[in-house]
Design a protein that fits this description.
The complex is a heterodimer.
Chain A: H1 9-18, H2 21-35, E1 40-44, E2 46-49, H3 78-90, E3 95-98, H4 108-121, E4 126-127, H5 132-142, H6 146-156, H7 171-177, H8 184-196, E5 201-207, H9 213-230, E6 233-240, H10 247-252, H11 259-272, E7 278-279, H12 283-293, E8 301-304, H13 323-332, E9 336-340, E10 346-349
Parallel strand pairs in A: 1-8, 1-9, 2-3, 3-4, 5-6, 6-7
Antiparallel strand pairs in A: 9-10
Chain B: H1 5-13, H2 19-27, H3 31-46, E1 49-53, E2 55-58, H4 87-99, E3 104-107, H5 117-130, E4 135-138, H6 141-151, H7 155-164, E5 167-170, H8 180-186, H9 193-205, E6 209-216, H10 222-239, E7 242-249, H11 265-278, E8 284-285, H12 289-292, H13 294-299, E9 307-310, H14 317-320, H15 331-340, E10 344-347
Parallel strand pairs in B: 1-9, 1-10, 2-3, 3-4, 4-5, 5-6, 6-7, 7-8
Classes of the chains: A alpha/beta, B alpha/beta.
C-alpha cells in the first residue's frame, strides 16, 4: 500500500477521516484487484436458520430476541430445521448458517445430536453455525471449556463458525451496546481456538452505533492481529447498525450510518486487512444498489443469497436478492460471477456477459 | 482508465464532450473514474455545496387521459382510486407546507379531461393570494399542451396566463425519453419529444425557468439516452432556461412496462455522472432521492450531483410505481446526508438562491 509497508492505526484513522471517498475507493479497488485478479465476484447460496429467538443476552441493538418465558419465544423442532435445509439443497445451496439466541436450556447434547443428524442427512451442506457468543454460552450451560465445546461440535459436524457477534471489538463500546455479551477477548479466544482446530471462520463488524473512529479502527487491527497468528479468517463482513425497533435506536436516537460512511469503512477494511482474502458487501443492510457499488470499494463477494434471514428483518429493514439478480448486478458492475462454498471454493462459474449499463446496448 | 483517457483529457481541459464521448462513458466499467471526472466538472460549478429545498409535492389529480406504459399513477374518471383534489384541498396542503417552512410547491398531475385552464388559473391565483412567498413550480410541458388543447389556445397563451397568476417556473417532467421511436413505445399518447422541447423553449423565452428530466432504465438504449442529452444541451444553448438535469430511475414494480428489474446502483451513478459531464451548460444535476433511494442519492454527491431535491412530503407518482423510499425527508435528514458525504448543505429556493441564512 504505502511503499509495501503495512498500515498503522494512525494511517488508518487518517484514511477514514480525511481521504476523499473516491480516492479511498481507488486504493481499495486496487487491493481487491491484486488479491482477486480477473474480475471474479462470488456469492454463496445459503440459508440462515435461527433455531431460537430466546436469548438471555438482550443486546440493545437487537430487535430479534425474546427473553426466556416470552410468549413469542420459540425453538425450532428438528423436522422444521430439516425441511428448511431440504429447500436449500433443492435450490443448489451449499451452506446452512444456524444461529440463535443464547437459550438458557439448550445443552451441548442438543446441538451434537442435531449436527450429527444434519451431516448424515445432508453430507454436502456446509454447517457454518454458532457465533462465539453462542459457543461461550453453550460451554457455560454445559459445564465444559470453550475448546472442549468446539471440539465436540466439530466432531458432531460443525464445519466452520460465522463471525457474528463481533460488533465492535472494543469493550468500552460493547459495554454500551451489548452489556451482557462476551468481551472482545473472549470473542477472539473462540475464533483462535476454532482456527487452531482447523475450522475457518469469518469476522464481522457492526458499526454506526456509538463507537468512535478510533474504536472502529481498533476493531480492524484486532482482527488483523489475530489473523496474523492463525490465518483462519476467510472473510471480513462489515455492516451497519440498524436502529429502528431496537432499544439502542430508541435511547440513542442515532441516525443509521449512511451509504457514504459504509463505503468508507468497507474500503478502509480492505486496506487494513491485507491478510484477509475476502471482503463481503452487505446487501442485507445496504440494499442491492449500494452492495453493487461496493464492488468498486474493495468488496469481492456479495455474501449469501439468504433464502431466509430474520435478524436484520426484525429491525424492519428487509431486502431480498434472488440469485438471478445477483448475477445481473455483478455483470452490470463489470465483473463476472461465480457461486462459491463457505470456504470460497468455486462450485459454478457464470460466463461473463458483455459489459453493461442498465440500458440495452444500442 | 485507458478507454476513458481521451474523454478525461477533454474534461480536464474544460472542452465540450461529443455524443461519442457520452456513449464511451456509458460503456465504461470504470465507475470511480467516472465519479472523479464528474466531480471535477461539478466542483468547478458548485464547489463543495450541495443544494436542497424545503418543498411539498402536490399531485392535484391522478385522472389522466394518457396511458403511459411506465406509469402506475394514472386513472380514468370513475376508476377505483381515481381522485381530484378540490381547490380547498390544494390550499390546505399549501398552508401545511408554508407552516412547515416550505419555499416551494411542486404541482404536477394527470391530464384531467375537465380541469380547465380557467380552473388552474383560479387555483394559482388563490395560492398566490394566500401564500405570496411560496414559489409555485408546476405543470410539465405535457400538461401545458393538454390545457392548451382544452382551451383551444396556444401553449404560449397558456403559459402567459399561468405566469400572469403566479406560476414561477416549470418542473422538468414529461421529458421521459425524447428519442421519438422509444418514446412512442413507452408513452404512445404523450406529446412528441419535439413538442415537449418546443413548449419548454416557449416557457424559457417567456422567462420561466424549468428543469429537465430523463426517465431511464426501461427499454431505452444507451444511444437513446445520449440523443436525449443532445437535445437538452442544444435547447439549453439556445435559451439557458434549464436549471437542473434530473435523471429519473424507472420504477418497475407496479408498471405495465415491466422490464422486471429496477435500475442498478452503478447505472444510477453512471447516468448522473454522464449527465454532469455532457451537459456542460447546465448548472445543476439533481439526484431525486424518491426514486433513487437515499443511499444512492447520497453516494451520487461524489458522482457529479450537487442537488438532493427537497423534503417532498407527499409523493404519489413514484410511490404508486413501487418506490420504496420514504415519502418525506426532514431538513435535518437532508443536511445529515449531505454532511456525512463530506459536503456543505445549502438550503435553496427554487431559483437556487440560498435561503434563511443557515437556520
Amino acid at each position: 500500500m504505502t511503499g509495501g509497508g503495512r498500515l498503522t492505526r494512525d494511517d488508518a484513522l487518517a484514511l477514514l477521516r480525511d481521504e476523499p471517498l473516491l480516492a479511498l475507493g481507488r486504493k481499495a479497488d486496487a487491493v481487491r484487484q491484486r488479491l482477486h485478479p480477473g474480475g471474479m465476484v462470488t456469492f454463496v447460496v445459503d440459508r440462515n436458520i435461527n433455531y431460537t429467538n430466546v436469548c438471555v443476552c438482550q443486546c440493545r441493538f437487537c430487535a430479534f430476541y425474546r427473553p426466556p418465558g416470552h410468549a413469542e419465544g420459540y425453538v425450532l423442532a428438528r423436522e422444521a430445521i430439516f425441511a428448511k435445509i431440504r429447500e436449500l439443497v433443492a435450490q443448489g445451496g451449499t451452506q446452512v448458517l444456524m444461529q440463535g439466541g443464547l437459550h438458557p436450556d439448550l445443552p451441548i447434547e442438543w446441538f451434537e445430536s442435531l449436527f450429527r443428524a444434519m451431516k448424515a442427512e445432508f453430507p454436502g451442506v456446509q454447517n457454518h453455525s454458532l457465533s462465539p457468543a453462542e459457543i461461550v454460552h453453550l460451554a457455560g450451560v454445559s459445564g465444559i471449556t470453550v475448546d472442549e465445546c468446539l471440539g465436540r461440535l466439530q466432531t458432531a459436524g460443525l464445519d466452520s463458525v460465522p463471525g457474528g457477534g463481533a460488533e465492535v471489538l472494543v469493550d468500552e463500546v460493547r459495554r454500551e451496546i451489548s452489556p451482557n455479551k462476551i468481551g472482545w477477548q473472549a470473542w477472539a479466544r473462540v475464533m483462535e481456538a476454532a482456527h487452531r482446530r482447523g475450522m475457518p471462520t469469518t469476522a464481522t463488524l457492526m458499526f454506526g452505533a456509538t463507537e468512535t473512529d478510533r474504536e472502529l479502527v481498533e476493531h480492524l487491527f484486532r482482527v488483523r492481529d489475530l489473523q496474523d497468528r492463525t490465518g483462519g479468517f476467510t472473510a471480513f463482513i462489515p455492516w451497519t447498525f440498524q436502529p429502528s425497533r431496537t432499544e439502542l435506536g430508541r435511547t440513542l436516537g442515532v441516525r443509521p450510518a449512511g451509504a457514504v460512511r459504509y463505503l468508507r469503512v468497507l474500503a478502509l477494511a480492505r486496506l487494513v486487512l491485507d491478510n484477509v482474502a475476502n471482503l463481503q458487501a452487505s446487501w442485507v443492510t445496504q440494499g442491492e444498489k449500494v452492495a453493487q457499488v461496493a464492488l468498486r470499494f474493495g468488496a469481492n463477494d456479495l455474501g449469501g443469497t439468504m433464502l431466509e434471514e430474520n435478524v436484520v428483518a426484525a429491525t424492519g429493514v428487509s431486502f431480498q436478492l434472488p440469485q438471478g439478480r445477483i448475477l445481473e448486478l455483478i455483470r452490470d458492475a463489470g465483473f463476472w460471477a461465480a457461486q462459491r462454498t463457505t470456504t470460497y471454493r468455486v462450485v459454478r462459474e457464470f460466463p461473463a456477459a458483455p459489459s453493461g449499463g442498465g440500458a440495452r446496448v444500442g | 482508465m485507458s478507454a476513458l483517457a481521451p474523454v478525461a483529457r477533454k474534461v480536464e481541459a474544460g472542452e465540450r464532450l461529443t455524443e461519442a464521448d457520452a456513449l464511451a462513458l456509458f460503456g465504461s466499467d470504470d465507475l470511480l473514474a467516472l465519479g472523479e471526472l464528474a466531480s471535477l466538472a461539478n466542483g468547478r460549478q458548485n464547489g463543495e455545496r450541495v443544494f436542497f429545498n424545503v418543498n411539498r409535492h402536490i399531485n392535484p389529480t391522478n385522472i389522466c387521459v394518457n396511458r403511459c406504459r411506465f406509469c402506475a399513477f394514472s386513472r380514468t374518471v370513475g376508476e377505483p382510486g381515481a381522485y381530484a383534489f378540490s381547490a380547498e384541498e390544494v390550499l390546505a396542503r399549501a398552508a401545511e407546507a408554508e407552516a412547515a417552512g416550505a419555499t416551494e410547491l411542486h404541482l404536477v398531475g394527470g391530464l384531467h379531461p375537465e380541469l380547465t385552464l380557467a380552473w388552474y388559473a383560479e387555483l394559482l391565483a388563490a395560492l398566490r393570494a394566500a401564500h405570496p412567498r411560496l414559489h409555485l413550480k408546476g405543470f410539465t410541458a405535457v400538461e401545458i399542451d393538454h390545457l392548451a388543447r382544452l382551451a383551444g389556445e396556444s401553449p404560449q397563451a397558456v403559459l402567459e396566463t399561468l405566469a400572469g397568476v403566479g406560476l414561477g417556473s416549470l418542473p422538468g417532467g414529461g421529458a421521459e425519453i425524447l428519442a421519438e421511436e422509444t418514446r412512442h413505445r413507452i408513452c404512445p399518447e404523450k406529446i412528441s419529444g419535439a413538442r415537449w422541447l418546443e413548449i419548454v423553449e416557449t416557457a424559457h423565452r417567456l422567462g420561466l425557468r424549468s428543469n429537465a428530466t430523463m426517465l431511464y432504465g426501461h427499454v431505452e438504449s444507451r444511444k437513446d439516452r445520449v440523443e436525449h442529452l443532445r437535445l437538452l444541451r442544444a435547447l439549453q444553448d439556445r435559451t439557458g432556461g434549464f436549471q437542473a438535469f434530473i435523471p429519473l430511475a424507472f420504477q418497475p414494480r407496479h408498471s405495465e412496462l415491466a422490464r422486471g428489474a429496477a435500475t442498478t446502483g452503478c447505472d444510477d451513478l453512471k447516468t448522473l455522472a454522464v449527465g454532469r459531464l455532457y451537459l456542460d451548460n447546465f448548472a445543476h444535476v439533481k439526484a431525486y432521492w424518491v426514486m433513487l433511494g437515499e443511499k444512492i442519492a447520497q453516494v451520487s454527491l461524489h458522482f457529479g450531483v450537487d442537488d438532493l431535491d427537497g423534503t417532498v412530503v407527499e409523493e404519489k407518482i413514484a410511490h404508486d410505481a413501487g418506490a420504496t423510499s420514504r415519502e418525506a425527508l426532514s431538513r435535518e435528514d437532508l443536511e445529515a446526508l449531505i454532511r456525512e458525504a463530506g459536503k456543505v448543505p445549502v438550503e435553496r429556493d427554487t431559483l437556487y438562491r440560498p435561503v434563511g441564512g443557515g437556520r
